[in-house]
């Protein structure tokens, strides 16, 4: 079943977002508590961790980017990908299994520890920016050019799963789609030192 994002998530001022603000406030408190508790016991691993993440729900091109990075790193180093084992992630898991060496447990840290024990030098996370139970070396922000950050409200008033201010934690931003200088400037508002690049999908095997 394909779920479409509500249209009001793209509108800054609307009655639906305002009506949902009490729930949004509760959600904000819960994610802050979770972040605080996870950081109390944050673990450091010996392998390098690259996280392809985002701050809003929905597809933003994380899986193709993880595969692309894997293809480049695995030419010279022992590299793997990490995806949390959830039934709703089955399509992405199968894709990563096909094109990469994938570790997929119910907890990302267990997958990372398994990869570390097998001597992997790099682990690429497909999602996991909001997992604070371990240290990451590089965070890459994935966002679609067309939708950007919507109305910039947290769930359920908007599409954000984390505060837009968390852009400050990312080293790179990958905008999927066409040139969007307005979005670039918005990203730079929260992280003036971030490096921004663009990506796009290309259809292969058109005759098949």
From the structure above, extract its key features:
7 strands, 6 helices, about 210 residues
Q: What would you say this structure looks like, in words?
A:
This protein has a seven-stranded parallel β-sheet with strand order 3-2-4-1-5-6-7. The radius of gyration is 18 Å and the shape is globular. Helix content is 32%, strand content 16%. The chain contains six helices and seven strands, in the order H-H-E-H-E-H-E-H-E-E-E-H-E. The chain is an alpha/beta fold.
Instruction: Give, in order, the helices and strands.
Output: HHEHEHEHEEEHE
**Spatial order of the strands forming the largest sheet:** 3-2-4-1-5-6-7
Q: What is the count of DSSP helices, taking H or I runs of 4+ residues?
A: 6
Strand content: 15-25%
Please summarize the sheet with the most strands.
Answer: 7 strands, parallel
Distance between the termini: 26 Å
If you average the pLDDT, what whole number results?
94
Shape: globular
Percent range of helical residues: 25-40%
What's the number of extended β-strand segments? 7
Strand-pairing-aware structural class: alpha/beta
Radius of gyration: 18 Å
Unreliable spans: none
How would you summarize what this structure contains?
The chain is an alpha/beta fold and 208 residues long. It has helices at 15-19, 21-40, 62-73, 90-99, 108-117, 181-190; strands at residues 48-53, 79-82, 102-103, 122-126, 138-144, 172-176, 195-199.
């Amino acid at each position: 079943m394909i779920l479409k994002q509500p249209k009001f998530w793209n509108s800054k001022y609307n009655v639906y977002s305002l009506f949902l603000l009490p729930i949004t406030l509760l959600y904000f408190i819960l994610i802050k508590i979770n972040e605080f508790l996870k950081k109390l016991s944050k673990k450091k691993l010996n392998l390098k961790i690259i996280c392809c993440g985002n701050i809003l729900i929905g597809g933003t091109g994380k899986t193709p980017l993880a595969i692309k990075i894997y293809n480049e790193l695995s030419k010279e180093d022992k590299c793997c990908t990490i995806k949390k084992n959830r039934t709703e992630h089955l399509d992405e898991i199968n894709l990563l299994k096909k094109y990469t060496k994938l570790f997929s447990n119910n907890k990302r840290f267990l997958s990372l520890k398994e990869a570390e024990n097998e001597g992997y030098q790099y682990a690429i996370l497909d999602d996991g920016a909001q997992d604070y139970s371990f240290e990451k070396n590089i965070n890459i922000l994935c966002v679609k050019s067309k939708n950007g950050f919507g109305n910039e409200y947290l769930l359920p008033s908007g599409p954000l799963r984390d505060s837009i201010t968390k852009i400050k934690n990312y080293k790179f931003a990958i905008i999927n789609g066409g040139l969007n200088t307005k979005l670039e400037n918005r990203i730079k508002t929260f992280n003036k030192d971030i490096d921004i690049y663009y990506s796009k999908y290309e259809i292969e095997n058109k005759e098949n």
